[in-house]
Structures are given as C-alpha cells and as structure tokens.
Design goal:
Elements (H helix, E strand, L loop, with lengths): L3 E6 L3 E7 L3 E8 L4 H16 L8 E5 L11 E2 L2 H12 L5 E5 L4 E6 L5 E7 L7 H11 L3 H8 L12 H13 L4 H20 L8 E4 L6 H11 L3 E2 L7 H26 L1
Parallel strand pairs: 1-4, 4-5, 6-9, 9-10
Antiparallel strand pairs: 1-2, 2-3, 6-7, 7-8
Helix pairs in contact: 2-8, 3-5, 3-6, 4-6, 4-7, 6-7
Length: 268
C-alpha cells in the first residue's frame, strides 16, 4: 500500500493529510511564528491520528507559502496545483476553485482533465482575505462566527474602500454615525464577495465551484458569497485541508508512477 503525506503551511494555519488513496487522517494547527517547527508538529500529529509512524510514509509533499522551510519533505509543489488536485478529489466535477486564505485569495480554473487551466491571485493586498476579515472583526469587537451571523439577513451598508487600512477608517466612521454592526457586517462580507467576483471576471470560470480555505468554515458567509455569485458552492467538511490533500495526492500519483517505471525496468 502506498501512503503519502501532504503538508500545507499557510500564514494562519498549517494542515497535514495522510493519504492512501483515501484520506487516512488529517491535522490542523495554528502556524505561529515558526513554520518549520509547526510543519513538523502537524505532520507528527496527523501520523498519530492515523496510527502510523514516519517510516510508514512513502513520500511527503509540501505546499503553501511556508513549504520552503520544511527540510524533511521530499517534494515542494505550488498551492495552485494542490488546491486543484484536492478540490477535484473531493468534488470530481469541480471546474473552479475559490480559496480565501489568511494572506491571499485565489481563483483557479480547472480543465476537464483536472489540470490547472488558469489562475489569478490576490497576494499584494489584504482585501478579500482572512486577514481583512480579522482586522474588520477586531474593529467591531466580534468573532468571525458572529460576523457571519450578523451579516445574514441584514442589508449591507456600502463600504467603498477595498484597502484594509482605509476600510478600517471607514468602519470606525460608520460606527460613529450610529450604523448598526449588522449592517456593517453585511457590508464587510459583501466587500469580500465583490473582490472575489472581480478576480473571477479576469479568468474563464465554470461551474462547479468549490470553495476552500478557513473562511469557508463559516456557513453564513458561504451563503452570502454563493448568492452573490449566483451559483452553488461545493464546500468540504474541512475546507482548510484542500491544499494539503492535493499535496498528498501529488505525492501518491508520483510515487505510483515511479514504482510502475521501476517495475518495467526490472522486467526488461
């Protein structure tokens, strides 16, 4: 049996998946200040959850911004490839992947054969990212879950700035004017939706759409984004592990292909 591991070191959370053709186990922990140590820790936690030891794993693949810090892995792969792989495994008809991470957001167009057809990232500004939501909820003194609950069913107030710094000043001003937190929360989520719609307009996107990343854990925000897109979103039970899953699948496919080639050489 081939067993592989995928580790996705993100800016906010680090994820690991143990894969043997199915998802054997997973683990998610905060990244913290030391991605190298965190990557190792989450790997060991996922192994423990699977009842395995390091020697049982045939290959380890790293992805995410912190993959360069993982000295114990066998291969590094971009998160674009890994998110496409992971999304297609979970939802085989996926043609578009929307991922909202801590420091960047990305839209990936997936070809019929599962390969990446095109992609676009928002990595130069925090607008449309988990960091943007973190700053906004901090101003409102609420949690991300409360943001989604307050935004649900509320009429959004217009938030004109997509820049985190200017949006922060704008929201402080709205609170001073007596605008409700519910209206502001709805406006914040709509700002995220507008940013993602703007990204998707720049590449050719098709349904089905799979939504991944930590923000996808919030059902109310998912409903608002889905409604704004006018399309149903596929959302996994653990949407944060899509990239790590994809990394493990890359390792699994590469290992099996290499094994088949070695078998052919031995026969010859």
């Amino acid at each position: 049996m081939v067993i592989t591991a995928g580790i996705d070191v993100g800016s906010t959370a680090t994820k690991a998946v143990i894969f043997d053709g199915t998802i054997r186990s997973m683990a998610i922990i905060p990244t913290g200040w030391n991605p190298k140590e965190t990557g190792r820790t989450v790997f060991l936690e996922a192994l423990n959850n699977a009842g395995l030891q390091e020697r049982d794993v045939d290959t380890v693949v790293g992805t995410g911004y912190g993959r360069v810090s993982l000295s114990f892995i066998d291969k590094k792969v971009t998160e674009i490839t890994c998110h496409a792989k992971g999304a297609r495994f979970l939802f085989p008809q996926t043609r578009t992947v929307i991922d909202i991470g801590g420091q960047d957001s990305k839209v990936i167009a997936v070809a019929e054969d599962g390969s990446v057809a095109d992609f676009i990232m928002n990595d130069k500004c925090a607008a449309g990212t988990g960091r943007f939501l973190q700053v906004m909820t901090g101003i409102l003194d609420i949690s991300l879950d409360e943001l989604g609950q307050m935004a649900s069913g509320s009429k959004p107030v217009s938030i004109n700035s997509m820049c985190t710094v200017f949006a922060e000043s704008e929201i402080i001003g709205l609170l001073a004017q007596g605008v409700t937190k519910e209206a502001i929360s709805s406006g914040i989520v709509q700002t995220i939706a507008n940013k993602m719609i703007s990204l998707t307009s720049k590449i050719s996107c098709l349904e089905e759409i799979t939504f991944s990343g930590g923000v996808a854990n919030n059902p109310e925000i998912c409903v608002i984004l889905s409604s704004s897109f006018g399309a149903k979103f596929n959302i996994a039970n653990q949407p944060q592990i899509v990239g790590a899953l994809g990394a493990a699948i890359v390792g699994f496919e590469n290992y099996r292909e290499r094994g088949n080639k070695d078998a052919i050489r031995n026969v010859m």
